[in-house]
Specification:
The complex is a heterodimer.
Chain A (H helix, E strand, L loop, with lengths): L6 H14 L5 E6 L2 H4 L3 H14 L6 E6 L11 E4 L3 E3 L7 H11 L8 E2 L6 E2 L6 H4 L6 H4 L7 H6 L4 H9 L2 H11 L11 H10 L6 E6 L8 H8 L1 H15 L3 E6 L4 H16 L15 E6 L9 H8 L23 E5 H13 L1 H5 L2 E3 L8 E3 L1 E8 L5 E6 L4 H8 L9 E6 L5 E4 L9 H6 L8 E6 L4 H15 L5 H18 L6 H16 L3 H5 L2 H9 L1 H9 L14 E3 L8 H5 L5 E2 L7 E2 L9 H5 L5 E3 L1
Parallel strand pairs in A: 1-2, 7-8, 7-10, 8-9, 13-17
Antiparallel strand pairs in A: 1-3, 3-4, 5-6, 11-12, 13-14, 15-16, 15-17, 18-21, 19-20
Helix pairs in contact in A: 3-4, 8-12, 8-15, 9-10, 9-12, 11-12, 11-13, 12-15, 19-20, 20-21, 21-23
Chain B lengths: L1 E5 L2 E5 L5 H7 L23 E5 L7 E4 L10 E3 L3 H17 L4 H9 L21 H8 L6 E3 L6 E3 L14 H5 L7 E4 L2 E4 L2 E7 L6 E4 H11 L10 H25 L1
Helix pairs in contact in B: 2-3
The chains are: A alpha/beta, B alpha+beta.
The complex binds flavin mononucleotide (FMN), iron/sulfur cluster (2 copies) and FE2/S2 (inorganic) cluster.
FE2/S2 (inorganic) cluster binds next to loops of chain B.
């Protein structure tokens, strides 16, 4: 590709791309994101391609391997445009049939359709599927129709138009002002107004400034940033170039988690293409503005995603946080003013430039016209997992209720179990009970409720979840992933884990709850970085909303969810018909009884592993 | 220069001064465990917390004085309720970690804390992971020991957990350790530290074995000065310098009086 020398050439190039495309040609978007790789989606895409050629449909059909569609549990998945036909769990050997029946003859393959687990009905169109219907995929949408490694696909959809607009019509200050007015807040955890950060960085004294994209994404179970970078790397890159222009930077970095090889490789390809096209590097689009960026691989720990640790790691030091009394926007990477934003934050930028502040602020909550902290605007991508029927990545407008996400998009709790809690905000987020389900999801509402937006983790829990055990799980994670540098976090998390373990094993005392609260306060106040400062959230939020469960463990020596092994007993009830199955599977040999006779569990031998209850076909074993 | 209030007392310090230095200059005390004048602030022990109100703000913040820059118009409280509570909590945690450390016990009891709220650790040494040893070693250019591991597993270690090959036996780490946790034994002109034995060189004046051969060699190499420059122990070298200076001063005075 020849470098695009100016705005006119970009426009012409795009028009050329669009007119070369036959609007009647069918496009088959096959998800080839990391989540689908396990289902051999790459082989499916190649098989489809081969079939299309074999069956002579090449000029009528185009196979497009795309980034993640979000509904990973249904992989391999594909969508046929413009008909919007959605096929799920497609295997490689079904490729021929998809081509010969659906693509050649418009025949729908029933067995590949999605069946709504709530209504039991088969659904043809993707836009009718509840999982997608209630989403608003502003950031994800484009990435689901393009090849991430083809800049032309991005350009044909209007890619880099935002950059052209900024470079041709706006002054850097106006761009900062635009982002400020849009109310965009950081998607990496803190929800800090992006425009405020940009302005401070722009105003900081010095000639050299850096912009960085935080793609460290260390939250267990979260992969929205990975999906964005894999599926639509140019949207993030375009956002960064716009930001660099606004802030006055000529060098950027993308700090990517080490475990994201596909993201790294797609970003490299995209950077090369953008450079070749004259959209990155020296003299971008002939305007005299120059900016380039590098990819750096992460240091491997959760704490490396923290801003100061990330910068230390970028400089080649151990990824440990330092005090932020001197802000990184003034003294950051190599002591220069540095602007760090999350992947999703950057991806919002071209969108805001293209569609304008009025449009953007119409989505979301609050009023940001006078105060950038006044609300939450735009969409947020969540990683919806746990006890919900539909799991995956969902992009929703800010202000949507938790109920809508969990029930309308997620389809509710499976197996007719009762909803118990939803954990939001990643490991240092909080757990909210049923009474909070109608809460609008935005930065401030979630914090007020004792949880947080975080980077967008959302774990649904049913009545078989023990909230003390959940708190313990997150504290353990945070302890293991902390750097261990400062006393309140390292020793505090250790002690917190010790106390929670004590409670889960029935050894807790009521004063432990006061101790937990006191310890939480000193960790929040005394820790060096935000990891330690927010680490007590899982404990505090469960203490606030599920205190009775802690008390049940301590006072009644009972785990209401029957999870904590030292506190539960298995007994056999009248339904037992003496099939002997449990007796045979019990690893402790704790069950006795003769064939066709009532069985009993020897409580002294039983170690509460629960194998028996899973094996019994007659619901004859109780746990309490 | 800038002005700030410390416990109600107005003080003036140079721009770029750390708050800890400003507080000490003003004559107030703040306990520290991970701080050393010769090293960059680290912010790990959290004992040096103070409460500050920045100019133009309503809210106060608890910050660590060692790495907080003194700012104009700052109001500082070094013994407020929040400060005392945070410090006590830190010591409560450290006391559980190192129940046998006299330094920690003393600090804790100075705050009225005689027993930790947590079960004391068993079989643990007195390292509080302040990082002073590692940082001083790095500053001297040896980097023989490092911080290894994350979270609860963090520890001071030599690479590969072997006796550190880059150690020259200078003993700075042992001297700087606030809890005296690094064993250093000098006996019969030999030094044992970090499970290594070093031969020691004697002072040509007093005869005391005062430096390991390896440290001596590294000083000679680093300075480019002749080995003879380092043949005296610190004390002899100091007293010789003093004598020389005295002689000069006396002579100078005499010369002056002759004129
Ligand atoms: C322990 C810890 C881990 C973090 N991990 C990430 C991360 O993986 N990705 C991210 O974007 N931000 C992470 N953050 C937040 C960053 O420090 C920083 O606030 C963010 O990248 C700023 O971008 P934003 O303003 O666009 O959100 C983490 C913070 C902490 C304290
Ligand atoms: S709060 Fe935790 S992660 Fe942050 S510096 Fe302290 S020990 Fe490290
Ligand atoms: S050995 Fe001593 S100096 Fe080194 S980290 Fe531990 S307490 Fe600090
Ligand atoms: S002296 Fe300030 S944190 Fe240790």
């Amino acid at each position: 590709m020849q470098a695009i020398g100016n705005f006119d050439e970009l426009k012409k190039y795009r028009e050329g791309l669009v007119s070369a495309r036959d609007p009647k040609r069918k496009v088959v978007a096959v998800c080839t994101g990391t989540g689908c790789k396990a289902y051999k989606c790459d082989d499916l895409a190649s098989a489809l391609e081969a079939e299309v050629v074999k069956q002579g449909l090449s000029d009528k059909v185009e196979i497009v391997p795309t980034g993640c569609h979000g509904f990973c549990e249904r992989g391999s998945l594909l969508v046929i445009y413009p008909d919007d036909i959605f096929y799920q769990k497609v295997s490689v050997d079904q490729a021929a049939e998809v081509v010969s029946k659906t693509l050649a003859n418009g025949e729908i393959l029933e067995e590949l359709l999605y069946e709504d687990p709530v209504t039991g009905k088969k659904i043809v169109k993707e836009s009718d599927i509840p999982f997608y219907k209630h989403q608003q995929q502003l950031l994800f949408g484009p990435g689901r129709r393009i090849r991430p490694t083809e800049i032309d696909d991005y350009l044909a959809l209007g890619g880099y138009e935002g950059l052209a607009k900024v470079l041709s019509e706006m002054k850097p200050d106006e761009v900062v002002e635009l982002i400020l007015k849009s109310g965009l807040r950081g998607r990496g955890g803190g929800g800090f107004p992006t425009g405020v950060k940009w302005r401070t960085c722009r105003d900081a004294p010095g000639d050299t400034r850096y912009v960085i994209c935080n793609a460290d994404e260390g939250d267990p179970g979260a992969y929205m940033d990975r999906s964005l970078l894999e599926g639509n790397p140019h949207s993030v890159i375009e956002g960064m170039i716009i930001g660099a222009f606004a802030i006055g930077s000529d060098q950027g970095y993308i700090y990517v988690r080490n475990e994201y090889p596909l993201a790294v490789s797609n970003v490299h390809v995209a950077l090369d293409q953008a450079r070749e096209a004259g959209l990155l590097g020296e003299n971008i689009l002939g305007t005299g503005f120059s900016f380039d960026m590098r990819v750096s691989r992460g240091g491997g720990a959760f704490v490396c995603g923290e801003s100061t640790a990330l910068m230390a790691s970028l400089e080649g030091f151990v990824g440990e946080p330092r005090a932020k009394y001197v802000h990184t926007v003034e003294h950051g990477l190599y002591d220069k003013p540095t602007n760090l934003n999350n992947v999703e934050t950057w991806a919002n930028v071209p969108l805001i430039v293209n569609k304008g502040v009025d449009w953007y602020t119409s989505i979301g909550t609050g009023d940001v016209s006078k105060n950038p902290w006044g609300g939450s605007k735009g969409t947020k991508i969540f990683s919806l997992v746990g006890k919900v029927k539909n799991t995956g990545l969902v992009e929703v407008p800010m202000g949507i209720s938790l109920r809508k996400i969990i029930y309308d998009i997620g389809g509710g709790v499976p197996d007719d179990r009762a909803f118990k809690a939803v954990q939001t905000g990643g490991p240092s987020g909080g757990c909210l009970p049923e009474s909070f389900l109608d809460q609008p999801v935005d930065f401030d509402e979630l914090s007020r409720a004792g949880s947080m937006m975080g980077s967008g983790g959302m774990i649904v829990m049913d009545d078989r979840t023990c909230m003390v055990d959940v708190a313990r799980y997150f504290v353990k994670f945070l302890l293991d992933e902390s750097c261990g540098k400062c006393v309140p976090c390292r020793e505090g998390n250790r002690r917190m884990l010790e106390i929670l373990t004590r409670i889960c094993s029935g050894q807790g005392v009521l004063s432990d709850l006061d101790l937990l609260e006191r310890l939480s306060r000193s960790m929040m106040r005394g820790s060096l970085c935000a990891l330690g400062q927010t680490a007590p959230n899982p404990v505090l939020s469960t203490l606030r909303h599920f205190r009775h469960e802690y008390e049940a463990h301590i006072v009644d020596h009972r785990c209401p969810a029957a999870v904590c092994r030292p506190l539960i007993t298995y007994t056999i009830n009248d339904e037992c018909n003496g099939c002997t199955l449990c007796k045979r599977v019990c690893p402790q040999k704790a069950i006795s009884g003769e064939k066709k006779k009532f069985h009993v569990i020897d409580q002294d031998k039983c170690d509460q592993c629960g194998v028996c209850i899973q094996s019994c076909k007659f619901d004859a074993i109780d746990v309490a | 220069m800038l002005n700030l209030d410390i416990n109600g007392r107005r003080v003036t310090v140079r721009k770029g001064t750390a708050l800890l230095a400003a507080i000490r200059e003003a004559g107030f005390e703040v306990p520290t465990l991970c701080h050393h004048e010769a090293l960059e602030p680290y912010g790990a022990c959290r004992l040096c917390v103070v409460e500050v109100r920045e100019e133009g703000r309503d809210k106060t913040r608890v910050v660590t004085a060692c790495n907080y820059p003194a700012k104009a118009g700052l109001q500082v409280e070094t013994e407020s309720e929040a400060v005392v509570e945070t410090r006590r909590e830190v010591l409560d945690l450290l006391l559980a970690r190192c129940p046998g450390s006299p330094v920690i016990r003393e600090l804790a009891s100075s705050m009225g804390l005689h027993r930790s709220s947590y079960p004391p650790d068993q079989n643990r040494d007195n390292c509080i992971l302040c990082g002073l040893c590692v940082r001083v070693c790095e500053k001297l250019g040896f980097t023989a020991i490092t911080m290894a591991g994350r979270g609860a597993e963090r520890e001071v270690a030599a690479p590969l957990k072997e006796p550190p090959p880059d150690c020259v036996g200078c003993g700075s780490c042992a001297r700087v350790c606030p809890t005296g946790n690094i064993p250093l034994v000098d006996r019969d002109a030999m030094r044992r530290i970090w499970d290594r034995d070093f031969e020691m060189v004697r002072c040509t004046s007093c005869g005391r074995a005062y430096i390991t051969r390896e440290y001596l060699e590294s000083r000679v190499e680093a300075s480019g000065l002749p080995a003879s420059h380092f043949e005296l122990c610190d004390e002899c070298s100091r007293s010789r310098t003093a004598q020389t200076m005295y002689r000069h001063m006396v002579l100078d005075d005499k010369e002056a009086s002759h004129e």
